[in-house]
Amino acid sequence: MASSTLLRSTLPRTFASATGRNVLRSALQGTDELNLAYSSLISRSKARASSTAQYVPGGPIIKGTVNDPVEFPPPSRTHGSYHWAFERLLAASLVPMTAAAFVTSGSSYPVFDGLLGLSLVMHSHIGFDSMIVDYVHKRKFPILGPILSWTLRTATVGVLVGVYQFNTNDIGLTELIAKVWTA
């Protein structure tokens, strides 16, 4: 009876390793083997107690393992925080540019028309690209992910050409925004 209580108390720890499962399986096959399994568990626990790792509440902190802090990679202009800062700057700059488009006339400021058109298209491209990366990543969807990425790039180039044509051959974005706001 006492040996079955001991077996139940060590049950979660024995399932943690394959050897523990084998010991548990052999312990369930007979009482002679139960004594052997009990002695092997006791010898393992004594070996663990005599190891060089000192007990710290919450678990030992061992250098060179998952307990070490993550070293951050060096900053790169093509990855990471620079992209995030550019996205925030672009999004924040669209507010005053849209307000200025409402106030000014498009025919007077063609450079402003081009800058607003480029900013709107790039802001949209970044947003849709983030959605594709988050939900249809190429590691999980090896065929659909790249197809959608290239479709977005193609659509972005097409929209840039269309905005250029609209700004040079028609009324332009600032005139369009002014007309929409007054309509």
TrEMBL record:
GO terms for cellular component: membrane protein complex; mitochondrial inner membrane. Heme b binds at residue 123. GO terms for biological process: mitochondrial electron transport, succinate to ubiquinone; tricarboxylic acid cycle. It is a multi-pass membrane protein. GO terms for molecular function: heme binding; metal ion binding; ubiquinone binding. Gene3D superfamilies: Fumarate reductase/succinate dehydrogenase, transmembrane subunit (1.20.1300.10). Keywords: Iron, Membrane, Metal-binding, Mitochondrion, Mitochondrion inner membrane, Transit peptide, Transmembrane, Transmembrane helix, Transport. Transmembrane segments: none annotated. It is found in: Mitochondrion inner membrane. InterPro entries: CybS, SQR/QFR_C/D. A ubiquinone binds at residue 135. Pfam families: CybS. Its main location: mitochondrion. The keyword rRNA processing does not apply. PANTHER family: SUCCINATE DEHYDROGENASE, SUCCINATE DEHYDROGENASE [UBIQUINONE] CYTOCHROME B SMALL SUBUNIT, MITOCHONDRIAL. Belongs to the CybS family. This is Succinate dehydrogenase [ubiquinone] cytochrome b small subunit. It comes from Suillus luteus UH-Slu-Lm8-n1.
